[in-house]
Amino acid sequence: MTKVSALYIECSSDVAAYARDLLYSDPTAINLNYLSDNPLQLRVLASAMSKRFEGKTVLITGASSGIGRSTAFEFARSCPKNLKLVLTARRIDSLKQVASEINKEVGDGVRVLPVQLDVSKADEVRNFVGQLPDEFKEVDVLVNNAGLVKGVAKAPEIAEEDVDVMFATNVTGLINMTQAILPSMLKRNNGDGSGDIINIGSIAGREPYIGGSIYCATKAAVRSFTESLRKELIAKRIRVIAIDPGQVETEFSLVRFGGNKSKADAVYAGCEPLTPDDIAETIVFAAGRRENVVIADTLIFPNHQAAATIMHRKST
Ligand SMILES: NC(=O)c1ccc[n+]([C@@H]2O[C@H](COP(=O)([O-])OP(=O)(O)OC[C@H]3O[C@@H](n4cnc5c(N)ncnc54)[C@H](OP(=O)(O)O)[C@@H]3O)[C@@H](O)[C@H]2O)c1
């Protein structure tokens, strides 16, 4: 019997997600006799969106964990045949691991380039674009996701170092990345420009809360920058998209509490936070719309959340 090494199913992204879950959790759901056993390659295609992504280059900052990592997988799953991913963060080993897991899952139709880059270092960002290999230079989608929070201190007790690192990463880093990539987006399409800039803000940028003054200020700055940019680019075919998550369980709280896992876990006690995949799906959905459709602004909560600090917690 001839065995096939890949099974392609053409369907919508929702059905694709369902099929993927089903087939990975219950391989007997299909007749495995027809599939080569090692490795089982299952590729599920989401048709219209998949076609829109074909041949594109997507650059994600902060792709070594959390939302950025999930976004890399979600783009790869949405267009497994012909996509280029540039994944950046400081932890290069984690990026290489993400790259190899993506190729293991979707095959080598997705070309992944892991690049070590600290967005808070202006000189690194400046050199980064010039050093990209030619085939990855024309970035179609920039996901400005790298970001972090440090501590819960209130003024006047906030460490100067924490203030600096949050602004340098969340604000200056995002602005520098945008300025590094934008010139090539502007040149395309006979000068009309093309491309997507997707900025990851936060509910914190809309609603300042006690103990988060600096982080909230950085995300408010991201919001202002994003809205100015959309207005500045009004005559161009460049989409500027804001994604503002509420509570998502990632390494975010671990970083906030300097690696203290019990403090980080307490943030989610009695709650069912969003997963990074939930945000990744929204990012990829926004990027996957028809070129004339701009998902300009989104606010995404888990079901128990209604504001930055209004959370229903089940008693344990
Ligand atoms: N989790 C939440 O509840 C939540 C809510 C709203 C918004 N957000 C936003 O979502 C984004 C992603 O956060 P996450 O929740 O996925 O947290 P995460 O798991 O801690 O991921 C943060 C990512 O940013 C990268 N990063 C941090 N500093 C960097 C730097 N200087 N240069 C390059 N990369 C850097 C980290 O990689 P390296 O350490 O390898 O550099 C990591 O990949 C952030 O902008 C965050 O503010 C998160």
Walk me through what this model shows.
By secondary structure, the chain is an alpha/beta fold. It folds into 2 domains: 1-46, no CATH class; 54-300, 3-Layer(aba) Sandwich (Rossmann fold). It is built from 10 helices and 9 strands. The strands form 2 sheets. The protein has a 7-stranded parallel sheet with strand order 5-4-3-6-7-8-9, sandwiched between helices. Helix 3 packs parallel to helix 4. The longest helix has 28 residues, at 160-187. InterPro entries: NAD(P)-bd_dom_sf (IPR036291), Sc_DH/Rdtase_CS (IPR020904), SDR_fam (IPR002347).
Separation, N- and C-terminal Cα atoms? 55 Å
Q: Mean pLDDT across all residues, rounded?
A: 91
The number of distinct β-strands equals 9
Kindly name the structural category: alpha/beta
In this structure, how is the largest beta sheet organized?
7 strands, parallel
**What's the CATH topology name of the largest domain?**
Rossmann fold
H/E series: EHEHEHEHEHEHEHEHHHE
CATH architecture of the largest domain: 3-Layer(aba) Sandwich
